[in-house]
Structure formats: C-alpha cells, structure tokens
Amino acid sequence: MYDHRGMGVVDYLRILLHRAWLILIFTGICTGVMAIFTYEYMVPVYQAKGEMLVIETDPVQVGEDKNKNRTPFTLAEIDANIKLMETYKSVILSPLIMEKVTESLDGETLEEVTIKNLLEDVTINAHERSQVMTVYVSRVYPEDAELIANRVMETFVAEHEDIFNLKNTRIITGAEVDADPISPKPLVNLSAAFAFGLMISIILSLLLGYPKKYKRN
Q1: What phi and psi values does residue 6 have, to the nearest 5 degrees?
Q2: How far is the C-alpha of 80 from the C-alpha of 84, rounded, in Å?
Q3: Which single residue of 4, 9, 110, 142 could bond 177 by disulfide (Cβ 3.0 to 4.6 Å)?
Q4: Which stretch of DSSP H or E encloses residue 54?
Q5: Which residues share a beta bridge with 122?
Q6: How far is Cα 49 from Cα 172, in angstroms, rounded to an integer?
Q7: What digits encode the pLDDT tens for the residues 50-80?
Q8: Which residue numbers delimit the Polysaccharide chain length determinant N-terminal domain (predicted)?
Q9: Which has the closest alpha carbon to 145: 103, 109, 99, 91?
Q10: No. of H helices and E strands in the chain?
C-alpha cells in the first residue's frame, strides 16, 4: 500500500529532478523523430490563390455596348450575384469545366493532371456577403499550382457565358503561389512532438519515482 501523506510539490519536483535524464532523452527522441519525418519524408504542398468578381447580372446582347446606359447596381442585383456564386462554385467543379481545364493543360504541367486529382486539389471559396470568389489550388509543384489556378479561372470565365447566357465574371487577381508550403508545418509538428514527449516523460518519471520513494514495508 502507498502512503499519500506528506506528498507535496517539493517531493514531486525531486522525483522529476531525479529523472531529468529520462525527460530530456525521451523528449529529445520524440522531437528528433518528428524532425526527421517532417523534413525527410513529408512532401511539401504549395498553394496558389486567385480571385474572381461576380458582376452584371443582365444577359449579354450581341453587339451591345456593355458600358452604354449602365446604372448603378442595386442591393437586389448584388444579392442576386451573391446567390449565383453558389451555383458558380458547383459549375467550376463540374466535369464540364474540369475536363476542359485538363485538356488545356495537356503537357504543360510537371505532374500529370486528371479530372480526379483536380477535384481533390481545387477549392472554391465564396466569401460571405461578398461578390468575390477565391480559387485555391494545392499541388506538390508550385508552378503547377499557379498554372492550374489561372487556367481554372480563365476556362470558367470563357465557358460560363455560353452556359448561363451571362457575362458577369471577371478575374480580378491572377493566381500567385505562396513561397512557403501549406504543409507540412515544421514548427507546428516539432512543437507538438516536443509537448507530447515532455508530457509522457513527466508521467513516466512520476510513475517510476513514486513507488520507490513512498512504498511502505
């Protein structure tokens, strides 16, 4: 049986100090293993981002000057454009657009592009109460991410007029890739491994040290 009387902060600190070598070694091993795994085995993934604006809800008239007799947008028109964005998100990710993007990229990318991996790599974000849609593309090669993001936006802008009989989208920000990969995150991984190793090593130290010091004959 264990005697719990007299156990205080000082006693726990003494146990931890006595097992400091275990804490240091175990924490170091956990952090080192994660560092090796992060830098040697995890493949960096880069993300490109571009933006499109949804405007003008009137149908396109052949030969019509789009700047002629233009009136300021009303709140109702802006709301209509915002509602259209949800539909546009689905259309961008539809086989119709993805197939055309795939065909146009044939031979231009460092890594093969298929409809399946496009659907995995492309994300469309429609900002709440905004007429701006953001296209994100995540790929192993940053050049591919940027090229694909721009091609997705260009293809949609070119094709959606025929689909909806509207000409109400334009690219406002060409896709650019972030210099730093979105994954892995070395600092996050190493911090998590350090915290895990420290926590487990402290628990082990207390479990190993407690019976030895407080066990009754």
Answers
A1: 90, -5
A2: 6
A3: 142
A4: strand 46-54
A5: 137
A6: 12
A7: 999 887 555 444 344 544 555 555 666 667 6
A8: 10-104
A9: 109
A10: 7, 4
* Residue ranges matching CATH 3.30.70.1130 in the chain: 46-62+73-177
* List of the chain residues with pLDDT < 50: 1-4, 59-64, 66-67, 212-213, 216-217
Written in H, E and C, the secondary structure of 108-173 is: CCCCCCCHHHHHHHEEEEECCCCCEEEEEEEECCHHHHHHHHHHHHHHHHHHHHHHHCECCEEEEE
What's the distance, Cα to Cα, between the start and end of the chain in Å?
A: 9
Amino acid at 160: H
Q: What is the CATH number of domain 46-62+73-177?
A: 3.30.70.1130
Sorted by sequence, the CB contacts under 8 Å of residue 5 that are 6+ apart come out as none
